[in-house]
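ARCHIVE CARD
CATEGORY: sequence design from structure
SOURCE FIELD: tokenized fold
FIELD CONTENT:
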């Protein structure tokens, strides 16, 4: 097993991010496999988002796992493509017949023109006589945002023996939080908040029973730092936010974390009520 030490990538375009979405970035992807004289398209796709958007790409089979995080550092007439790669493949068998896997973790970067198409070899440059080769063709383009600020993803898988994932990686500057209280079959009127991570705390009252309201102070915070090198390298916590809730009357503090994926999450509260929180990308401005 080979391992190379690397630091996690910061999401690109920090200067552009601070000035708002000046353009929209798109990653066009094709994954190809050569077997002998035949070359087939495993899948295609596209990820788009604000200029600070990165691409998390995964290709998985029974014997191969490839995950990569790609980011761009734009310049007026070119950009630098930087990537962290985590690749695992079946290398053979031990004397006892157990599978032996080879794992490689590394970082690469390359300067490109906006019109270039780059070929990425997750397992390194193949040997001249290699009969089997997997690679990724990538083209990065920019366009006017058109009022669209949230990321989008599209995948077309053409070979069912592979599992192909394309994910936009962007740390949210804002998040919409939907809150409601539930007790049995009854629920409170849902409330919606537009929050900024580490912004000014907000206060609200929620109640299923008007005689027993909950007085909350809430604040949106980033998640705890990633725990493993793989999580940091692939920015697996990029779209995760945490809601810090305190009830001054009860001197209690609760934390509820989740992704901006429109999935409701529940938190039990003292007194039998349950708080339901949903984190979503904010509407376009």
């Amino acid at each position: 097993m080979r391992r190379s030490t690397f630091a996690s990538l910061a999401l690109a375009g920090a200067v552009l991010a601070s000035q708002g979405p000046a353009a929209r970035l798109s990653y066009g992807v094709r994954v190809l496999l050569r077997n002998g004289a035949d070359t087939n398209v495993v899948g295609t796709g596209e990820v788009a988002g604000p200029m600070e958007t990165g691409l998390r790409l995964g290709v998985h089979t029974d014997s191969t796992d490839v995950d990569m995080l790609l980011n761009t550092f734009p310049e007026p007439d070119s950009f630098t493509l930087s990537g962290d790669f985590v690749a695992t493949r079946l290398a053979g068998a031990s004397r006892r017949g157990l599978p032996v896997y080879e794992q490689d973790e590394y970082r690469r970067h390359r300067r490109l023109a906006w019109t270039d198409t780059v070929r990425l070899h997750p397992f390194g440059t193949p040997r001249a006589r290699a009969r089997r080769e997997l690679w990724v063709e990538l083209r990065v383009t920019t366009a006017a945002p058109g009022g669209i600020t949230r990321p989008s993803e599209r995948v077309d898988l053409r070979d069912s023996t592979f599992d192909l994932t394309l994910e936009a990686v962007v740390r949210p500057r804002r998040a919409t939080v939907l809150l409601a209280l539930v007790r049995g079959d009854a629920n409170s009127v849902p409330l919606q908040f537009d929050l900024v991570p580490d912004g000014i705390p907000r206060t609200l009252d929620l109640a299923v029973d008007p005689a027993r309201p909950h007085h909350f102070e809430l604040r949106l915070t980033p998640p705890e730092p990633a725990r493993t090198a793989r999580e940091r390298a692939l920015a697996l916590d990029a779209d995760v936010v945490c809601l810090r809730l305190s009830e001054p009357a009860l001197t209690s503090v609760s934390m509820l974390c989740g992704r901006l994926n429109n999935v409701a999450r529940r938190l039990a509260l003292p007194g039998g009520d349950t708080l339901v929180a949903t984190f979503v990308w904010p509407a376009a401005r």
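CARD ANNOTATION: The mean pLDDT is 84. Residues 14-18 form the longest helix (5 residues).
SHELF: design records, drawer C
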